[in-house]
Amino acid sequence: MSKVIVTNIGTLATPRGSGPKSGPDQGKLEVLKDAWVLMEDGLISQVGTGPAPAADRIIDAQGNLVTPGLVDAHTHLIFGGWRQNELGMKLHGKTYLEIQNAGGGIQSTTNATRAATEEELTTKAARALDEMMSFGVTTCEAKSGYGLATEHELKALQVIKNLNDRHPMDIVATFMGAHLVPAEYKADRAEYIRLVCQEMIPKVKDQGIAKYCDVFCEADTFTAEESRQVLEAGLKYGLRPKIHADEIEAIGGSQLAGQIGAISAEHLIVCPPEGIASLAKGGVIACLLPATSFYLGAVFAPARDMVAAGVPVAMATDFNPGSCPCLNLQFVINLGCLKYKLTPEEVLTAVTLNAAAAIDRACDVGSVEPGKLGDLVIWDAPDLNYICYRMGSNLVKTVIKKGTVVVG
Ligand code: NIG
Ligand code: FE
């Protein structure tokens, strides 16, 4: 049995538990001084303070902050190309939906993704995972959604499966065939929805390559009623619902999330009070993506109202080539404090335990406790306030995944 210990931890900050935290509990952390964490065969076996037990390998944290490995619960990891050409259009005042309706946006990434081989997509996404991990992420979610045809949606999910097998990152897959009605179905959107529900979802289920079904419920994309159809079809085949809701216009996505029992609702930038009430009633986790608000020049989701209403708040990057070409969850941490006015303690829970709960992994990641995976970040920082306050630098010193050093 291999024993690895992290000693000389100045501050160990972690939420505790195996489910999402809401209301005042979101801001309650365990904070230990002069601590150590012992891992055996990749799992945390003991956490303590003072004199440390013996181990085969000692990692000296040199008095720094240690937290759980971060969890990025919302990424569009698999895509061909980039969209730097849209920056000029943005600067000339074109909105996200105007660019999308002019054939840019998701459709142009779909064209590039369809043209890419499984191998090309794997190589590209592996680099993104390396970068994500360098910022402290040890578990992430990844969506399909730039194939928008059965063959290419399955290809993207296969890439995620390959990466989950080969890369140290733990990756949870989400099927998002309902990301946009592709150009060839524009004249018959009902037929595309039929394809998603009756062909793609059953095949995804057959191949066992996704756990969740997501839909972009948005003006000019999928209506709330169409979103309901897709999510109900997913449920029929055992895929739990997730939903992109209220990103640009509130067209009923957050209400639907609560009614249908989605595990999480994402974005919620313009979530109305009745949407927040529905999330609270349905036990839905709000997965907020502040770097997307920043990049779109939009307002920021009403995170404080959500905490006050007892909705567990998670935060993620939304990494994608259009609305958020950013892999840095530390930037999201900054925005969580500065723009959502969440406390550093609430923010840490949002990017660890609550993010883990948003992908149903809170039983084995998201906190530093015996029985959980040995996923830790040693920061180049003395305490939690410091990582929330500094910005623009990568403050990660060492990343440990299942008891093994993977960065640093
Ligand atoms: O979460 N909103 C839908 N999907 C992404 C954007 C996708 C894109 O622009 O390529 C998002 O913002
Ligand atoms: Fe997204």
Secondary-structure topology with pairs:
Elements: E1 3-14, E2 30-40, E3 43-49, E4 57-60, E5 65-68, E6 70-72, H1 86-91, H2 96-101, H3 105-115, H4 118-134, E7 137-143, H5 150-166, E8 170-178, H6 189-207, E9 212-215, H7 224-236, E10 240-245, H8 253-260, E11 264-267, H9 273-282, E12 285-288, H10 290-296, H11 303-308, E13 313-315, H12 329-338, H13 344-350, H14 353-358, E14 376-379, H15 384-389, E15 396-401, E16 404-407
Parallel strand pairs: 1-4, 1-5, 6-7, 7-8, 8-9, 9-10, 10-11, 11-12, 12-13
Antiparallel strand pairs: 1-2, 2-3, 5-14, 14-15, 15-16
Helix pairs in contact: 4-5, 5-6, 6-7, 8-9
The protein binds N-(iminomethyl)-L-glutamic acid and fe (iii) ion.
Sheet with most strands? 8 strands, mixed
The CATH H-level homologous superfamily of the largest domain = Metal-dependent hydrolases
Number of domains: 2
Radius of gyration, rounded? 20 Å
* Name of the level-1 CATH class of the largest domain: Alpha Beta
- What is the percent of helical residues? 25-40%
Count of DSSP E strands? 16
At CATH level 2, the architecture of the largest domain is Alpha-Beta Barrel
What fraction of the residues are assigned to beta strands by DSSP? Answer: 15-25%
- Global morphology: globular
Bound molecules: N-(iminomethyl)-L-glutamic acid, fe (iii) ion
Instruction: Assign the structural class, choosing from mainly alpha, mainly beta, alpha/beta, alpha+beta, or little secondary structure.
Output: alpha/beta
Q: How many helices?
A: 15
And the CATH topology of the largest domain?
TIM Barrel
Low-confidence stretches: none
Average pLDDT number: 97
- Calculate the terminal CA-CA distance, rounded to whole Å: 24 Å
